[in-house]
Amino acid sequence: MFYHTKDGSGLPRDPFAAIVSPRPIAWISTRGASGATNLAPHSFFNAVAYTPPQIVVSSVGAKPDRAKGKDSYSHIVETGVFCVNIAGSADREALNASSANYPAGQSEIDALGLEAVECETIDCPRLAHVPAALECRLTQTVDLEGKDNLLILARVEAIHLRDDCLTEDGRFDVLRYEPLSRLGYLDFATVTALFQMRRPKL
């Protein structure tokens, strides 16, 4: 099968998100200029550099009660900071519930009864229970092609690691929490097995 993306695949559902998978999920917590907090998952997310550590997140879609983008995007532009909470398998129901279209000003953290604590380097809440959290400072936004496609680039200022996810030899062990990832359609996956390969030397 072959198709031009501008023409569509002709399949019942667009396969693009299933092809580019699995994708890590940024469970983003924010506090807007008004003091309102927000929590939402974003599945177009990844790390893009080591030094300094930097990430990229896309905000796709809009809300009628926002001038541009969704609540997370609006808060990030207003304050310049946000926190990426890393979700494990145990978070699947709460993460999915936080994707509901809550009105601006309604805190998903409060609505779902999740415990939040303050970040250390930025004015933003983070989820207390997650295996890892990245305190991020906005460096750039980019309007992408297409309606309501917005790109966020940020520098990671500080990192929280849950102690029970660290091994005795100092490795962050993803199998201790099984990272949640996004596939296509309504599909999610968790990491339950690892294998290693050394980079070849020529």
Automatic annotation (TrEMBL):
PANTHER family the record matches: BLR2425 PROTEIN, FLAVIN REDUCTASE LIKE DOMAIN-CONTAINING PROTEIN
SMART domains found in the cross-reference section: Flavin_Reduct
Keyword hit for DNA repair: no
Pfam name, any one: Flavin_Reduct
Xref: SUPFAM superfamilies: FMN-binding split barrel (SSF50475)
Record keyword Transport present: no
Flavin reductase like domain span: 20-174
Alphabetized UniProt keyword annotations: Plasmid
Native source species: Salipiger abyssi
GO terms for MF: FMN binding; oxidoreductase activity, acting on the CH-NH group of donors, NAD or NADP as acceptor
InterPro entries for this protein: Flavin_Rdtase-like_dom, Split_barrel_FMN-bd
Gene3D superfamilies in UniProt: Electron Transport, Fmn-binding Protein, Chain A
Protein name stated in the entry: Conserved protein of DIM6/NTAB family
